[in-house]
Design a protein that fits this description.
The complex is a heterodimer of chains A (334) and B (293). Chain A is of the alpha/beta class. Helix content of chain A is 35%, strand content 20%. In chain B, the strands form three sheets. Chain B has a seven-stranded mixed beta sheet with strand order 10-9-8-7-11-12-15, with helices on both faces. Chain B has a six-stranded antiparallel beta sheet with strand order 4-3-6-1-2-5. The chains are: A alpha/beta (334), B alpha/beta (293). Chains A and B meet through strand 4, helix 2, helix 3, strand 10 and strand 11 of A and helix 1, strand 4 and strand 13 of B. Bound molecules: flavin-adenine dinucleotide (FAD), iron/sulfur cluster (SF4) (2 copies) and FE2/S2 (inorganic) cluster (FES).
Chain lengths: 334, 293
């Protein structure tokens, strides 16, 4: 493992140089929330790599909420553009892991997703200060990038300590090598300490872990338990739009001149009409059934097929929830 | 503390796919345009649409998404033989897409996408008696299966069809059944819920045809397609008389969108009906709470 240092005074130059090659998105902290913003030459900018994940999920960079996926009768679709996501957090990498499985690993490949994925360079950043909503440690995610990203950076006193994970990442570093230095022992020590502290903090936030067989427990708990768990849900659906691991979608066709566009929009199993079949019958019209299904999908079925949870522990669902339902509290009780 | 292994090898997933060369040239969301060659009304609300040619290679049991341009898609199992020259669908008018389809005329353009799902395991049926039970428009996919079996009829011991409809006028393929009844090795019985003066056969729901089951239930496959309520009672009966659970093949009803195991709409328990189905066995689904809606 080779580590490099991007000194503090070179961070902005690095972003500027990257922007010559594609759009660069970096995190800023405003009004107590992190947001990813697009770099623009004429703007003052102050990237912040230390705060937790952005308030919004980042899935639209790969899987937009509205996407033309095919045309009829002659096919065509827009080309993806090169983009850099700089400073996204490890929990959002779990989201990308989920999408990679669904859209690339499981045939047939989704060409739109794959193209965007290939055109997007991911530079993730450590979380030195996990917040109370965070529970990445309970779903097998560390608060720092260990793969899926091209490069991971840790904010240390001297700048950003960079670890490279892909060929693409190496190429970027060598292209901008004038800005980087080889990391020193004390830089690496500092990173170790930051990571240890972050994990310790997460351990304090989430003292209990989920049971090993949480999927089966959800299955066994059945609908009755769900009735209690969802009693505060007012069906505002904030959780669905915030979730970086939900991937349900719906295809619909629209006339556009002589052609027809097939449009893919985000959908969610939590919507009442989601499972409705021809003629009107609906196997999951009840809220408790849908609530149950959402947990089963994330913690039981996905785990059974892919070996990890379709949940990143980002806590966005809890933060957004009008009824303050905390998914952890439900799972801890099972 | 850690409860699950952190799986962090998505970069590998990406590399692997590039190496195995999955093509992203093929767009799984694109529908192939094709013209309607002929329209044959079967009953007051069920019609067979014959398309001009065979846009895809499918096997009996697989399905396709049919598009009415500008309106949308819905999943249907072809009702024609996989060996036929033209692809056919037999469709009941129930809602938005099907109503738009019923407005179309000969020569109009539709789109098809597929084939999706798993075919019937015809190899496993070799040398056996095959017991087919259908209701209403459920005869559509069963016809494709039946025609595929006829294509190699010598391979199978005997084909039984038990089919029920509401009234004699609701029987799908009434124009074809008399000829099928003449085929050696084929045994077809029909029933209607409500008969009329001309009706010579059984009256009663389809389960009355299952009072006596002439096949060896120990090793025969039985294939069922029809409305959920029928599926439920027929399955109960088939289990009761001793068919092996893994030999009871059921066409599952579910909402669908993508057809390729991605959008999640078709989930029934942990199964994707579009990918693991659309036909699942009783062995697969019996553990699921209320599998038939
Ligand atoms: C594998 C498979 C094979 C099939 N084969 C056949 C066949 O051979 N022949 C046949 O006749 N049928 C078949 N069907 C059933 C057929 O797919 C349905 O009858 C068809 O989808 C009905 O479409 P529709 O738009 O006309 O009906 P609608 O009732 O209008 O719509 C059904 C679909 O539209 C959505 N929808 C409609 N209104 C709403 C609303 N208000 N809110 C939310 N969602 C809504 C539903 O979610 C559902 O997906 C098959 C189904 C499957 C799954
Ligand atoms: S859940 Fe973990 S990775 Fe995500 S923001 Fe919180 S600490 Fe960082
Ligand atoms: S379920 Fe909640 S905690 Fe898990 S990924 Fe979705 S928004 Fe984040
Ligand atoms: S129809 Fe989309 S996953 Fe089955």
């Amino acid at each position: 493992m080779k580590l490099y240092l991007l000194p503090s005074d070179s961070i902005k130059s690095f972003i500027k140089e990257l922007a010559e090659d594609g759009s660069v998105f970096y995190p800023v902290f405003e009004d107590d929330k992190t947001h990813l913003v697009k770099f623009a030459e004429d703007k003052d900018f102050e990237p912040d790599f230390e705060k937790i994940r952005t308030a919004e999920n980042i899935k639209h960079f790969f899987f937009p909420s509205r996407d033309v996926v095919a045309k009829f009768p002659k096919d065509s679709r827009p080309k993806a553009e090169k983009q850099y996501l700089f400073g996204i957090k490890s929990c959002d990498l779990r989201g990308i892991d989920v999408y990679d499985r669904v859209f690339i690993k499981n045939e047939p490949v989704d060409p739109m997703y794959q193209e965007r994925r290939e055109k997007t360079i991911i530079i993730s950043a450590d979380c030195p200060e996990p917040a109370d909503c965070c529970f990445c440690n309970l779903v097998g995610v560390s608060p720092y990038g260990e793969g899926t990203c091209d490069i991971n950076v840790t904010k240390i006193s001297a700048g950003l300590l960079c670890e490279v994970f892909t060929k693409r990442g190496e190429q970027i570093l060598s292209k901008h090598q004038d800005l980087f230095k080889e990391a020193g022992k004390d830089n690496i020590k500092e990173r170790e300490k930051i990571r240890k502290d972050a994990l310790k903090r997460l351990g304090k936030i989430n003292e209990k872990s989920f049971k090993e067989d949480i999927g089966e427990r959800i299955e066994k708990a059945g609908k009755k338990t769900m009735q209690d768990a969802q009693k505060d849900c007012v069906e505002c659906f904030a959780c669905l739009h915030a979730c970086p691991t939900c991937y349900c979608f719906l295809l619909s066709d629209y006339k556009k001149g002589k052609d027809v566009e097939r449009v893919r929009t985000w959908d969610a199993c939590y919507y009442a009409a989601y499972a409705r079949v021809g003629g009107g019958a609906n196997p999951r019209s009840d809220l408790k059934d849908r609530f149950w299904n959402r947990l089963l999908c994330k913690f039981d079925y996905f785990n059974e097929y892919e070996g990890f949870f379709a949940c990143s522990g980002c806590g966005r669902c809890y933060r957004g929830c009008s009824g303050k339902i905390d998914i952890r509290e439900i799972l801890w009780k099972l | 503390m850690e409860t699950v292994n952190p799986v962090r090898n998505s970069n590998k997933v990406l590399d692997q796919n590039q190496k195995t060369g999955f093509s992203n040239e093929v767009n799984p969301y694109y529908s192939i345009p094709i013209k309607i060659k002929k329209i044959i009304p079967e009953t007051s609300n069920i019609t067979t649409f014959i398309l001009e040619g065979m846009p895809m290679k499918f096997e009996a049991g697989q399905f396709a998404e049919l598009t009415v341009p500008g309106v949308g898609e819905a999943p249907f199992t072809p009702s024609s033989s996989p060996y036929a020259k033209d692809m056919e669908f037999t469709i009941m008018q129930v809602g938005r897409v099907t109503s738009a389809l019923f407005e179309l005329k000969q020569g109009d353009l539709v789109g098809v996408r597929g084939p999706f799902g798993k075919p019937y395991p015809l190899d496993d049926f070799k040398g056996k008696e095959i017991y087919i039970v259908g209701g209403g428009v459920g005869f559509a996919p069963l016809r494709s299966l039946f025609l595929a079996l006829l294509h190699n009829i010598k391979k199978y011991k005997k084909i039984y069809i038990r089919y029920g409809a509401r009234t004699p006028d609701d029987i799908v393929y009434r124009r074809l059944i008399p000829d099928w009844q003449k085929i050696n090795g084929v045994d077809i019985h029909l029933t209607v819920d409500v008969g009329d003066e001309s009706w010579q056969h059984t009256v009663g729901v389809v389960t009355v045809l299952l009072d006596e089951i002439p096949v060896n239930v120990k090793n025969s496959p039985t294939i069922v397609c029809g409305p959920p309520i029928m599926l439920k009672f027929v399955t109960q009966r088939l289990v009761e008389v001793g068919f092996e659970h893994k030999n009871i093949y059921l066409s599952m009803e579910s909402n669908m969108s993508c057809g390729i195991g991605k959008c999640n709409h078709c989930r029934v328990g942990k199964f994707y009906v579009c990918k693991d189905g659309p036909v699942l066995t009783w062995d697969d689904v019996k553990g699921i709470e209320e599998p038939f809606l």
